[in-house]
Every structure is written in structure tokens, then in C-alpha cells.
Amino acid sequence: MTARDEILERIATAHRYAPPAAPDYDDIPRVRPSEDQDRRTERLIELLVDRLVDYRARVRTATAETLPSMITDALTEQGISSLVAPAGLPEGWLSESAADVLRDEPEHPLSVIDLDRVDGVITGCAVAIAETGTLILDASSGQGRRALTLIPDYHLCVVSQDAVVPDVPQALARVDPTRPLTMISGPSATSDIELNRVEGVHGPRTLEVIVVTTPADRA
Description:
Elements: H1 3-16, H2 37-54, E1 58-62, H3 67-77, E2 82-86, E3 100-104, H4 112-117, E4 120-123, E5 127-129, E6 134-137, E7 154-160, E8 164-165, H5 168-174, E9 182-184, E10 189-191, E11 197-199, E12 206-212
Parallel strand pairs: 1-12, 2-3, 2-4, 4-7, 5-8, 7-12
Antiparallel strand pairs: 5-6, 6-9, 10-11
């Protein structure tokens, strides 16, 4: 028996004794808490907020009715006077804001210089992972191309309650892997050789998140 034959025989033997293929993620049995959907959603949002704060992101909660005023408050407190809005961003979100809004349209995209001159950017969010505090943008309507969230120093991200999922596998099941996905876990930060934290090197220095919840009696 040659060395090649021996290696192949060992591989074949290992396959014969290997466990069966793992079941699909959704088929794995789980013990879930005996609580109603409203409570489970509330716990997910609490976990997401906890993880975002741990990443040093600023977090607020709002309802659909209070969202415009909450956005205005966030921009005012941060001194944001100019803002980039991607195509498809709901008009009502900025209805109460006095900030100058630059629209980034596919037919007329803003240049890097334009993006560098504004104070911040506002986007929606495709999926938010509660377990990791990660926001996923997929460049769809209301989220814009990746450059919008990398160049301005301030990023305000609006997350719908319906976009919050428990963990990474469920998040990946929701997104289209062929789209340009941007995963954001807190503000941009890095450390030098002496472990001094520096923020804003590779993206926004400040990440602010508004989680839009639906009151239980209206769900």
C-alpha cells in the first residue's frame, strides 16, 4: 500500500464513522421560554440595546409617531447641521429637522468630497442582531451605498422592531448574500501598539441608533 492509498483509506474510514449531517438550523430543537411574543420581542430589544451600549453606541427608542422628533433631538444634541440621506429614506423621518439634507441618488451620487463635508448620515437598517449588537445594512432603499456610512463622522441608524433577530444564523437567513452587506458593531475604533483606543479612524466616530418599537396594544 502506498502512502497515498493509506491516506485515502484513513479518510474513507473516518467518513464511515462520522456522525450524520447536521440538521438545518430551523430544525434544531430548542427550549423556548413560555412567554408571549410581545415579551420575547421586548427581551430581544433589551438585549440589542445592552450590546449597542456596550459598544459605546448611543441608543434611543421611539415609536413611529415620535420618530421624527427623536431624530431631531439626536441631531440637535450632536450639533449636526448637514446630513446625507440615501435614496428611499422615508420623507417623514426628517420632517421636523432643520438640518440641511443632501440626497444621494443613484443617478447623481455624492462625491467623496461632498460626503466628507457633511456632519453625518442617516440610514435605515436591514437586520439587527440582538446577541452581538450588530447592524446589517444591505444597500437597499433607505440604506444607501457603503461609502455613505464610512465617510461622515456621525451615523444615525434607525432600526425597526421587525428587523431585530436573536442571533447571527437568523440574521444571515434574512439577508441576500449577493448584496453588498455592511456589518456595524459600534462606532469605528482601533487600538495602537500600546492599546490606546482611537475612534473614527475607519468610519464614523459616533454611532447613534434609534430603535422604533410598536406598542403591544397595536401590534
